[in-house]
Write a structure and sequence with these properties.
Helix content: 25-40%
Oligomer: single chain
Shape: globular
Order of helices and strands: HEEHEHEE
Number of strands: 5
CATH superfamily: RutC-like
Low-confidence stretches: none
Strand order of the largest sheet: 1-2-5-3-4
CATH topology: 60s Ribosomal Protein L30, Chain: A
Number of domains: 1
Radius of gyration: 15 Å
Strand content: 15-25%
Length: about 160
């Protein structure tokens, strides 16, 4: 079990803060809790509404930019999770799965390395609870031209 204070202390030590949980941009909800599963809708790499990481890996963006975009997506996922759990991080059991799409050229083959930006953040922040199943695939285009889009599934303790 991890406490809310511990999450914020770890984030601070990493030089990170949770952004404000973004409102949905279309006809969906940002998260759904069903039983002990928390489903976080796809998150983009924008932080606090500031557009960033627009472009395609293997063309206009570097691998390093893609990794940073994936980390930003993970921060947004965590912000939505925080909202879903009502700010009570002691409810978190584990990150179950991340699904990542990378806006990339047909020649770009480092999609797993890009999504490591999110996976590494989950592992560093959550320890063993952050280890998860995952996929990382290429996409010809993503919403708003972003480099990366990631969703997540978490196991949480019901209220």
């Amino acid at each position: 079990m991890i406490s809310t204070q511990e999450i914020y202390a770890r984030l601070e030590k990493m030089g990170l803060t949770l952004p404000k949980a973004a409102a949905p941009a279309a006809n969906y909800v940002p998260y759904v809790i069903s039983g002990s599963q928390g489903y976080i809708s796809w998150q983009l790499p924008f932080l606090d509404g500031q557009q960033s990481h627009i472009g395609r890996l293997g063309d206009t963006l570097t691998l390093e930019s893609g990794v940073e975009a994936a980390q930003n997506c993970a921060l947004n996922i965590l912000a939505q999770l925080d909202a879903a759990m009502g700010g009570d991080w002691s409810r978190l059991k584990r990150c179950v799965k991340l699904g990542g799409f990378v806006n990339s050229t047909p020649q770009f083959t480092d999609q797993p390395a890009v999504i490591n930006g999110a996976s590494n953040l989950m592992g560093e922040l959550l320890g063993e609870m952050g280890r998860h199943a995952r996929f990382a695939v290429s996409a010809v285009s993503l919403p708003l031209g972003v480099a990366v889009e990631i969703d997540a599934v978490f196991e949480i303790k019901p209220n």
